[in-house]
User: Fold this.
Amino acid sequence: MAQDVLYIYRMIGSDGALMTLHGVTQKVRQKSVRGEAERLLKEIAKARNLTETELEDRIIPDCDLDEKGRYTFDYGVRTFSLAFDSEFKPVLRDEARNKIIKNLPKPNSKDDADMAEDARETFKAMKKQLKDVVKIQTPRLESAMITGRTWPTEDFLTLLVNHPLMCHFARRLLWGVRTKNNAISTCFRVDEDNNLVDAEDEPFTLPDDAYVSIVHPLDLTDELKETWGTVFGDYEIIPPFPQLNRPTYSFEADEKGQSSIKRFKNLSIPGLSLKGFVQNSMLWRQGAAEDAGIVNVFWCAFEEANISCTVCMEMGFDAGGGNWSEDGGLTDVFFYKGRQVRYYWGSQRDKDVLALEKVPPMILSEVLYSLYKFTSKYEES
Assistant:
């Protein structure tokens, strides 16, 4: 039945319907449903002569915002404008009082009752759509930062800076021009009027042949991080996910020349905690259930880099609804070429496995960032 619903969205074909299909690939745990949504998106992308990520850029709804990302709710006498709070949730600005409020107020005797009712219904629907789209776009852009994805100038300006909704994301992130050797040559931000400016707030002209990326802290020197950190602090710009202050990690001295990370192997982590971590993660997917229905690995794929990572668990967790749980560590973390799960044993274990020095620094850092965020509360056994 779930797959039948996917076909209906495919037949509808609107940007909103296709965005919903993409959301299924990110949020639904059932492999059959998620896999069918992925297949349908590939089919649509091929028909439009686009990559999957290029298609995803082009199916983001505008949510009825204007070209500057604005919308005004009119009560006749009073007006309220759409805004986003520090957690990127849709809120409103009371224009008369210059005050942020969470919801539209009930109309008073001076308001036009019909206009106020229309405004309240519009905001109710818009608020839900905005929350759904933001929930999808936030991890998608975070993934783009991690993998160093680039947009050519025209696409960057059209699909991000001048998109009615995505401009709000663009204004909260630090951007950079990426060179052919994958380094960031120049950084800039997008101001409230969708102009490109440098760290001194001087206009910045993006070359027509440039490729633009979301800057990762590993792209920056300490001096540049401090400079741009001051700019973002002065303007009270809060990114939709950690960017400039994001912790970074690398392999340790005793891991040099190795092909796996074992620093988490002695931790005592409850199986049910691991299960919750994996099943609620936007990054990780659980491996297949094996003997007695126990899952022993979880993994993730960095699509554009064509690299994946598998994490092996000492005790694993029950794939079903059972409460079987024993404490154990993460015995092995390894990276390899390709976009599918690899297991600890057998010929697949060593096929295309990368030495840690060969793993892109951002991917290595992000895997460790995710694991440290989860394991920091657990002690060694």
